[in-house]
Amino acid sequence: MLKQDIGEIRALILKHKRWDFMFAICGVVALMIGVLTFAALFVGMAIDGLPRLSWDFFTNFPSRRSEHAGILSAWVGTTLVMLVTAVAAIPVGVGAAVYLEEYAPKNILTDIIEINVTNLAGVPSIVYGLLALGLFVYTFGFGQSILSAGLTLGLLILPVVIVATRESIRSIPSVIREGAYALGATKWQTTADHILPYSAPGIMTGIIIGMARAIGETAPVITIGALTFIAFLPPAPIQRTFPFFNFDWLTSSFTVMPIQMFNWTSRPEAAFHENAAAAGLVLVFMTLSMNAMAIYVRYRLRKNIKW
Amino acid sequence: MSKITDGPTSTTELKVKAEARKLNFYYGAFHALKSIDMPIYERKVTALIGPSGCGKSTYLRCFNRMHDLYPGNRYDGEIRLQPDNTNLLNPQVDPIEVRMRISMVFQKPNPFPKTIYENVAYGLRVRGVRGVKILDEKIEQALRGAALWDEVKDRLQDLAFNLSGGQQQRLCIARALATEPEILLFDEPTSALDPIATASIEELIADLKDKVTILIVTHNMQQAARVSDFTAYMYLGEMIEFDATDTIFIKPKNKATEDYITGRFG
C-alpha cells in the first residue's frame, strides 16, 4: 500500500493541475488566432464597405463609375445559380446516400465507392470547373450559362450532401430500423416512412452547409466562363402569360457575387475596392444566414426526435 | 426432442404452432446454432433461457428472419409454421411475408418518433389499411390488448417518447399486436425496465397467451418460471433441454440444466 501524507498528496495535485492551466492557455491562444483573424478581416471589410451599402447598390448594374456600380446582376445570378445547384444536388445526393446506406450490398465495390465519395469532397474546386467546362459547356452544349454553373456547383457539393446524409442515416439506431422491418415493412416503406423523416434534420443541415460553400465558390465558375461584367438580367423565370414559367434563364450568361468582387478588387481605383468590400459584406451575410438557417432547421426538426 | 411428460395444462391438447427441425445458423464462419429441434406450442408461452451468448436471441430472430437484414448470415434446416406447414427459412419464402405473420418485441423499447396512434397504426399501414374507422378500431383493440388504452386514450396524438419506459414497451407490444400475428416474439422485453414495469409486462404476457403463441427470450430465470408453460435451456448454440417449465425447474433431466437453474453455473 502506497502511503502518502496529506501534504504530499496536495502538492502532487497542485503540480498536476499546472498542466490543466497550461493547456487552457494554449487553447485560448489557438482559439484567438482563429477568431481574431476573422474578426479583423470582417471589421476591416465592414468599415470599407458599409458606407456603400444602399438600396441603389442592390438595384444597380455594375458600372464604369464606382459610385453608380451595384450588384444587381451578381445577386440575381447567384440566386439563380444556387437554385439550379439545389435542384441538382439534393435529389442526386440524398438518393445516392440512401442507396449506399440502405440498399447497396455490402461488398468491396461498395467500399471502394464509399471511400471515393468521401475523397471527392477534397478535390480542388478548380478541377470540378475544368470537368464541367468539358462536360457541360462543350459536350452537352449548355454553354457558359446559369445551367452549367449550377450543375457544376451541384457536382461540387454532392460529396458534402452525400456524406452528411449518410452520417444522419447512420445515427438512426438499428433497433428503430429493425422495428420497422419486424412489422413487415419493405425497404422502401422503411426508407420513406422512417429513414428519411428521421434523418431529415441532418440532411437539411448538410444541404445548407454545402450551399453555403457553393455560394462563395469562384474558381469553377470562372473556369466555365462566367462573365465579369454584365449589365443585363437573365429572362425572368415567371411570366404573366401561359405557361407562366420560363426556362430561358437557364441558358443565359451570368455573373455571381464572388466574381463581381474579384472584378472590383482587380481595379486600380480605391472606390471600387469599397464596392468590393460592400459586396463581400453582402456575401458574408448570405452565408451566415444560410448557416443560421441550418442551425434553426436542425433545432426545429430534432425537437421531436431523441434517441 | 424431449418427451413432454407433464405439462401444466395437460387437460387441453397441445397443438404445435411451429417447429424447428435440424436448425443450424451461421454468422459468417461462426456456427451459432447447432442442429436445434424444438416445438413451439400454440397459445402457450415458451421461454428460452441460457447464459449470455448461448444463442437464444439468435434462435428467436430466426423466426422472423431478422438475420436476413445483415450480410453473411446463413440458415440451414427448417422452421415449419402450422397450419400451412410453411418452412419459414425457405429462401423462396419472402421474409416480409414471415414478418407479417410473426411479430416481435425488442429488448429496449423502440417506439418510432411519431405519435402513439401512428406507432400502433404502422403495421396496419404497411399492410395497406387506409380507412380511418377501421384504423381507430384496430388501434383501440391493440392498445387494450397491451393494457395501455386507459393510460393513453386521451392523448393518442402525443409523441410516443413522452411515455415512460414501461408504457413505451407496452406500446411496442400494442404495435406488434395490432396486426394480429400468429406468433409474438419477445427478446428480453423487460431487461431495460424497472421492477414495477416488469411486473406489468409479465402480467400482460400471461393474458396474451389466450390469443397468441408466445416465444420469449429471458436472462431472468425467475421470469421464465413465472410466465412460461415450456422452457428451453440453451448453451453454446445447442438446445440442452426442452420440457414443461415445471419439469425444467423442479426435476430437470440434464445435469447441465440443473446446474444452471440452481445457480451453480451461469
Describe this structure in words.
Helix content of chain A is 71%, strand content 0%. Chain A has 307 residues and is mainly α. Chain A folds into two domains: 6-52; 55-302, MetI-like (MetI-like fold, Orthogonal Bundle), CATH 1.10.3720. In chain A, helix 5 crosses helix 6, helix 6 packs across helix 8 (187-215) and helix 10 runs antiparallel to helix 11. Chain A starts with 5 loop residues before the first helix and ends in a 5-residue tail after the last helix. In chain A, 36% of the residues are buried. The mean pLDDT of chain A is 87. Chain B has a domain at 16-110 and 181-261: Rossmann fold (3-Layer(aba) Sandwich). A six-stranded mixed beta sheet of chain B has the order 6-7-8-3-9-10. In chain B, a hairpin with a 2-residue loop joins strand 9 (230-235) and strand 10. Chain B is globular, with a radius of gyration of 18 Å. Mean pLDDT of chain B is 88; it is low at 1-7. At the A-B interface, helix 7 and helix 8 of A face helix 2, helix 3 and helix 6 of B.
List keywords for this structure.
heterodimer; A: 307 residues; mainly alpha; B: 266 residues; alpha/beta; Rossmann fold; six-stranded mixed beta sheet; four-stranded antiparallel beta sheet; 25% strand; globular
